[in-house]
Amino acid sequence: MRAAFEHATGLGEAARRAGELSARTVIFDVEPLVAYWNGTQETLDEGIALVLGEMAALPAVEVVCFSTNSPRRPSVAPSAVGVRVVYLASAGKPLRISSYQRFPRPGVVIGDQVATDGILARRLGYAFIQFRPPAGIPAGPRVMAVAGRLVRPLLFTKAN
User: H/E element holding 47?
Assistant: First the structure.
């Protein structure tokens, strides 16, 4: 069974759609929606706070997970009232899924890459909301985007 696939242009739109899907778990790829690839520690911490503020407005959300394949971490463990917050650095997406398997369903993965975030969503049985970053992304993510365009029709039902 192929999973749901949608596009979002920013955090507000992605959060709204996660709410419409009644997601109990929302997994965010850290780069570039929470903090840009070459951002500072301060921008990472601010991005996490901004995301948690958006998610706090969604009554169904029980778990917000920040997941990145990079080793970067926030300066303090993120938290929010009434929501379990998890931060996974060096997550090994999409190969390692054990850290996500006990999260409540239904869930949504929000990220920029079909080849990592999208496959993670598919493996977990979650919807995938693809964030389209602005121009000027690094070379590695550009190559991953090409790979993602090739596998997307095999994994997802439609693109909004």
Answer: helix 41-56
CB neighbour class for 1 (10 Å; exposed up to 12, middle 13-18, buried from 19): exposed
What is the reported pTM? 0.85
pLDDT per residue of the chain (160 residues) written in tens, 0 to 9: 446 888 898 899 999 999 999 999 999 999 888 998 788 999 999 999 999 999 988 999 999 999 999 999 999 999 999 999 999 999 999 999 999 999 999 999 999 888 889 999 999 999 999 987 666 666 666 666 656 666 766 666 654 4
Tell me the residue type at 11.
Answer: L
Judged by DSSP in three states, 140 sits in helix
**Residue 90 near residue 52, CB atoms below 8 Å:** no
Fold category of 5-155 in CATH? Rossmann fold (3.40.50)
